[in-house]
Design goal:
The chain has helices at 5-29, 46-57, 83-94, 103-129, 146-149, 184-199, and strands at 34-45, 62-71, 75-82, 134-136, 140-144, 158-169, 172-183. The protein is an alpha+beta fold.
Length: 200
């Protein structure tokens, strides 16, 4: 199924609503003001997403928080960002120095919480606005290269919704990617739900 410009705009708006809610929650957790924005959203096949992310991140180790969701739509949602940026983000949020020996001990828990808030914000926005029911698994934290992080459902029948999320924390700007993975049948269902909402 090809996605129209209007459908892509609707997807971007749904994701923006979700990250806006997530930013509000994160701001309540920390002293620093966190701004989240989504410059663009793309719908890609697994191989296209792999090529784009490999070109951007090369062979770098990445931090990822992923969870599975089921219901009206099912698949995997993940928040992925470079490990170095992840460490800086955790340092800003926890007050630990970036080179601190204690950082790794709190990093996984902190990133899992951030990933959980952002992903649930986005998925909640999609389910609420489109009036669809979804269930989520507990988020899982991983550090790996992009080919392993994308391997779960990586075939060209899988549509990947790739949204770049830009984090701005006071004067520090970090860039991460929110990657929503839908198997093709549920992606079509998502587009149909968006069409229904747009028609109202």
């Amino acid at each position: 199924m090809n996605v129209t410009v209007d459908q892509l705009d609707a997807l971007q708006e749904l994701i923006n609503i979700g990250v806006g809610r997530a930013a509000s929650l994160l701001n309540e957790m920390v002293d620093s003001h966190i701004h989240l924005e989504i410059p663009f959203v793309k719908v890609l096949t697994a191989s296209q997403a792999y090529q784009e992310l490999t070109a951007r991140f090369d062979d770098a180790s990445l931090s990822s928080v992923k969870l599975n969701f089921t219901g009206s739509f099912y698949g995997t949602a993940g928040l992925i960002f470079p490990t170095e940026s992840a460490s800086t983000l955790v340092a800003v949020l926890t007050g630990e120095e970036a080179g601190s020996a204690d950082l790794d001990a709190v990093k996984i828990g902190t990133l899992s919480e951030i990933g959980n808030i952002v992903i649930n914000g986005v998925m909640g926005s999609i389910s609420n606005v489109l009036k669809q029911h979804m269930n989520y698994t507990i988020p899982v934290y991983l550090e790996d290269k992009i080919d392993n992080l994308l391997s779960t459902n990586a075939n060209d029948a899988t549509k990947i919704l790739l949204a770049q999320a830009r984090f701005a924390i006071e004067k520090l700007e970090l860039i991460g990617d929110i990657i929503l993975i839908f198997e093709v049948g549920t992606f079509d269902a998502l587009i149909k739900a968006i069409n229904k909402e747009m028609a109202m």
